Amino acid sequence: MAKMEVKTSLLDDMIGVGDMVLLEPLDEDSFINNLKKRFDHNEVYTYIGSVVISINPYRSLPIYTPEKVEEYRNRNFYELSPHIFALSDEAYRSLRDQDKDQCILITGESGAGKTEASKLVMSYVAAVCGKGAEVNQVKEQLLQSNPVLEAFGNAKTVRNDNSSRFGKYMDIEFDFKGDPLGGVISNYLLEKSRVVKQPRGERNFHIFYQILSGASEDFLCKLKLEQDFSRYNYLGLDSAKVNGVDDAANFRTVRNAMQIVGFMDHETQSVFEVVAAVLKLGNIEFKPESRVNGLDESKIKDKNELKEICELTGIDQSVLERAFSFRTVEAKQEKVSTTLNVAQAYYARDALAKNLYSRLFSWLVTRINESIKAQTKVRKKVMGVLDIYGFEIFEDNSFEQFIINYCNEKLQQIFIELTLKEEQEEYIREGIEWTHIEYFNNAIICDLIENNQTGILAMLDEECLRPGTVTDDTFLEKLNQVCATHQHFESRMSKCSRFLNDTTLPHSCFRIQHYAGKVMYQVEGFVDKNNDLLYRDLSQAMWKANHSLIKALFPEGNPAKINLKRPPTAGSQFKASVATLMKNLQTKNPNYIRCIKPNDKKAAHVFNDALVCHQIRYLGLLENVRVRRAGYAFRQAYEPCLERYKMLCKQTWPHWRGPARAGVEVLFNELEIPEEEFSFGRSKIFIRNPRTLFKLEDLRKQRLEDLATLIEKIYRGWKCRTRFLLMKKSQIVIASWYRRYAQQKKYQKIKSSAIIVQSYIRGWKARKLLRELKHQRRCNEAATIIAAYWHGTQARRELKRLKEEARRKHAVAVIWAFWLGLKVRREYRKFFRANAGRKIYEFTLQRLIQKYFLEMKNKMPSLSPIDKNWPARPYLFLDSTHKELKRIFHLWRCKKYRDQFTDQQKLIYEEKLEASELFKDKKALYPASVGQPFQGAYLEISKNPKYKKLKDAVDEKIIIAEVVNKINRANGKATSRIFLLTKNNVLLADQKSGNIKSEVPLGDVIKVSMSSQNDGFFAVHLKEGSGAAGKGDFLLSSDHLIEMATKLYRTTLSQTKQKLNIEISDEFLVQFRQDKVCVKFIQGSQKNGNIPTCKRKNNRLLEVAVP
Ligand SMILES: Nc1ncnc2c1ncn2[C@@H]1O[C@H](COP(=O)(O)OP(=O)(O)O)[C@@H](O)[C@H]1O
Ligand SMILES: [Mg+2]
User: What is the pLDDT of residues 917-931, one digit of tens each?
Assistant: First the structure.
């Protein structure tokens, strides 16, 4: 909406008139006044139809902001105030949308703002075309090529502080979407003479100053340069500094731009090395040296600079030095070497510098093209931007100006051809009524210069190629002869007497009446510059350089490629490239920007009427307006016109069947466009006034909006309906699914309820059944029980009856027996004695006893005393007898058993019996001893010769001979002793020697003590005061304790008739000499196996641990 409030036509708030076509009255004064008025109001752009006139404001205006770009974007050309952006937008859109290649032709004098305009166009296009990382990089590279080329190709001139000293044509390539793909730059004729010499008040190319003020010390040192401008002959001193220009900052910009464009570090380095070399070349000076043949030969004054150049560029110093002193001319197998004089040496030096620099410049352009060229092979659309040097008229005009102005003539030609001539011719072609407009066609001037036979360039080339002495004067003479009659050629010496007295025209000059004015050219230097000669020795020296860039710049220096043919002259080269350019431009849709310089002082706000008037005149702008006015502002073939506006009329919308022209007629009638506003050509409709076109456009826009609304309406309807249908369908699906779900749920609920009800009923039925069954069973049981009871009662009754019957029968029998007895007794009483009953009783008894014994005889158990069997008692009255009989039998069989024993066995059993009486149930060791036979003499002393002495000492019978352990009181340890028991004594003897240690008569032994446990310890207590008692009691241990104690007991009894006291206690006292020591038996661990251990606990206590 915001946009709508802004202008909708250039007619709104117009200062003067925005389009000169609308100027009233149309004459030069009002034209200039209009421009001036607009200029004073900061309106620097004005249209003539679709041509933009741009007046250099010489100050920055706030009309190039991004907001402005947005404002002009996609707007109709005539909608907003005139602006270079409107033209750019028009060109870009027609390229993008109508697939027409475009070219933007920017013309005007030097300093009129062409280069700025070209940059504005490029930046606008960059701003509105596609976006994205890749596209942005392409854009950036395209834009950044400008600072690089400007640094090397622009210089300060009196007209312009940043004057392009080369022509530039740049093709920007786009894809079908309008995204930039890349570009190609062509350069035209760099003004290389500037390298070695600059007019007063002008500078050399920017790069020299930039490098000296911007490069770091380090970098300068590497390039062997010094900061001081005055050190260099090639840098004009009077205007080394330009106001408002920061060379140092620009240098950084240039380096940065080079990096962005894609220069490698080593390439940048090489480029600056060449620049440094050129600068230093200017410092080489020569001095004459007389030679024998009287000719002068040049010598280098100071070889230091030469040395540094050679170091910098890798050229062999001697080779370069020689190339500055000699010249080799080769002609048809001949090689002649001549020396150079000082002037020739200087000429050679400058030629080298110029060539180095201009070739470097061309190399830069090629290198940039390599970087920015489109990467794809898809079909491209092209927008060409031509920024070529403007028409130049200086005080001293030379070959360069001649060439530049020739180029401008050609451009004017194109302009004339494409606009004025083409327009008029088109009207004629289309059969439109047309009043011819006179305009100046400069073709005649172009012909004067470029005609292949008589053109000035052809003359110059002919002169250069001609054998013999050729000078600029001979060239002028030739011109005087050939061109004298040409109405645009003026010369003092020409045959035409018109100029004989024209003192403003010096003899060494010729003058051409260009379309933009008369220009006088100094003929001096034309031949040289056209030849553009570089001595072969120099190019060969360069080719030999150990510097890849320099070597590449001088391919002709390669001796292998020597070419004796002369290279094409500068003039013919230029002519050819201009011809190519013109051809190229003719294939594209032209867009014109005509730049005008308001004053000569580069000053803002100053509008010099005369200067502007001059430019308007030679640019033919007034004619341009006239043609526009006389004709029609807009034309279009019928088909596209109908196609574009057919929606404005019912008959033609949506399809017109019939010829397009008829359709357009119907359309225009319907729209009620006044008849004078348009004309029907043969193939095109011509619209006189732009406003008619705007009206059409507006209607169309309105209609398009309506159509869009219609489409939108239908689309929305369609969309809603589809959505509705979809929703309906979905609803049905959802509903069906939901119903299914709900029914399922309901069904399941009913089903489960049914199951519950069913289960209840079944339960109820089952319970009922169960109850019935239970009842039935109880009835059955009850019946059974009743039956059982009944049967029981019956049975008992029957039993009782049977018992009664049996008793009765018995009673009957008894009674019967008694009765019989009684009868018998009564009958037989008279036959029996009175005591017969007693006798019968006794007899019966005897008979029973007899039977018992007889049966017992057969039932006797075995004779073993341990057999416990005994037959059962048959009669109660024999009970005591039966027991007595058992006892007697046992005693008897024991006797029988004993009777089998020998005396010795008897003794043993006596002893065993004795032991049993002594120890059974008293000592835990006892049960183990029962099975062991008592042997007595375990040691057979008599048989062992070791004990002969002992045997001799004991002449009595030995009852016991055994090894025992005598317990030491001091430590509880044991020592082995032989224990001997004889009839009268007890002896202890050393086990090894058999020496008797002690001998005790049995009468002195009063007691033996031992524990109740399972150990073999025992103490033999001696009678106090007896002879043996001195040493105290014996504490011994033996494996046969039971046997020894028993035998000791029995022997003592038989000898002394006294019972030996045997004490069984777990704690007893033992007399050791004077002291009584307590021996205590405790339950010990089974650590040492089953052996009891004795330990001395203290002086009074020995502890025996029994496992
Ligand atoms: N549109 C503009 N706005 C502001 N200054 C301009 C504009 N056009 C040109 N200039 C000024 O004029 C100078 C010369 O312009 P330039 O384009 O280099 O001229 P030309 O290329 O025609 O010789 C520029 O350096 C700039 O200072
Ligand atoms: Mg320029």
Answer: 888 888 888 888 888
